[in-house]
Amino acid sequence: MVGLLFTVFSCRARESAARDGRIDLPAVLEAVAQTRASGETPVAVFDLDATLFDNSPRTRRLLEEAAQVDPTLTPYTEHIRKLPQQLPYRVDDSLTLAGITDRDARKRFKAYWSARFFTDDYCIYDIPIPGAVDLVNTLHDAGATIVYLTSRGEDRMKAGTIESLRQNGFPIMKSTAVLIMKPTIRGKDTTYKEIAAKNIKNIGKVLITAENESQNANIFAENWPEATHFYLNTTCNPKKIVPLHDSIIKIDDFSQK
Ligand SMILES: [Mg+2]
């Protein structure tokens, strides 16, 4: 009976979960309360890059640094400075946006970027997506276990990821705020997230997920059909776009305004 009631509630919550392109927080919190009342652990699953965090400042920092330390790139300092706040998914596209066409310069920028982007030292430059810190804390305070499910490699980014979450005010390093990372950046993200989803089922009942990659969002929708799933209209890998599952709700960010 409780299960049936919850299913009905989940459907209602999903219908109203993103009116006007934003999350209906009361509906989500009600689902958390219902789940706790049924004796289960409510779980919220969040991807990190381009979901809870905007990676643009990380890329911008690296391009600025490259222009500082490599004399052949210094003439491009002003090009980098004029880049918009939101940068594309691929560094190649950021260089094009900056108007940098010289092949050797592009190669040097990309080499500097790729040697450092996926490291502890630079992920601390990411900034939270609007509303992300408030939403995650509100869910955590309401009794939900937060799972950060990221494809970042544990070998090169664990310390930086934990520090970035901590510095930005996300709950972390608690039994109720768990970080799941890939052992290394190598390997298919979808395979990793499929396996992780099976393991997360042991933590509790997943009520809400958020992702910026359509393939991963679909994996969540398939694994947790009763949950509310959000797809972030931020940036994503242009080579991996697939049609989204019907139940997934598109949002620009997590703001409640
Ligand atoms: Mg992502």
Characterization of this structure:
By secondary structure, the protein is α/β, with parallel strands linked by helices. The chain folds into two domains: 2-54 and 127-251, HAD superfamily/HAD-like (Rossmann fold, 3-Layer(aba) Sandwich); 56-123. It has eleven helices and eight strands. The protein has helices at residues 2-16, 25-37, 56-69, 77-81, 91-97, 103-116, 120-123, 132-141, 154-167, 189-200, 214-223; strands at 42-46, 53-54, 127-128, 145-153, 177-182, 205-211, 228-232, 248-251. The strands form two sheets. A six-stranded parallel sheet has the order 5-4-1-6-7-8. It has a two-stranded antiparallel ribbon with strand order 2-3. The longest helix has 15 residues, at 2-16. The protein is elongated and about 65 Å long. The structure holds magnesium ion (MG). The site of magnesium ion has 6 residues, from loops.
The small-molecule ligands in this entry are: magnesium ion
- CATH homology superfamily of the largest domain: HAD superfamily/HAD-like
What is the approximate shape? elongated
CATH architecture of the largest domain: 3-Layer(aba) Sandwich
The parts where pLDDT drops under 50 for at least 5 residues are 1-16
Average pLDDT across residues? 92
Broad CATH class of the largest domain: Alpha Beta
Percent of residues in helices = 40-55%
Class by alpha and beta content: alpha/beta
Q: Can you tell me the CATH topology of the largest domain?
A: Rossmann fold
Distance from N terminus to C terminus (CA atoms, Å) equals: 36 Å
Beta strand count: 8
Strand content: 15-25%
Main pleated-sheet profile? 6 strands, parallel
Number of domains: 2
Order of adjacent strands in the largest pleated sheet: 5-4-1-6-7-8
What is the H-and-E element order? HHEEHHHHHEHEHEHEHEE
Number of helices: 11
Radius of gyration, in Å, reads 19 Å
